Amino acid sequence: MAVDYPKQRSDISIRAVAGExxxxxxxxxQIHQLNSTASFIWERCNGQxxxxxxxxxxxGAFDVNHEAAREAVEATLRRLDELGLLERARN
Length: 91
What we know:
By secondary structure, this protein is an alpha+beta fold. 41% of the residues lie in helices and 30% in strands.
């Protein structure tokens, strides 16, 4: 079974603006503002972590149970993918 390793697209620019993370998609000419949970997940999309590993890190950082963390990670990754901000590496 293939496992996804979410990865930020390499041509994306990231900025901190007024304490919020902003993702600049220069190719698509779009700007996306991320909340704290999405920012945490985004920062871990380096092609080295699985969805389960990101969820486990979220569990500790935000004091949520594993099921809630997994759902948040999956929903956030689905949205980032819909926006075209991710690449997926499979092992």
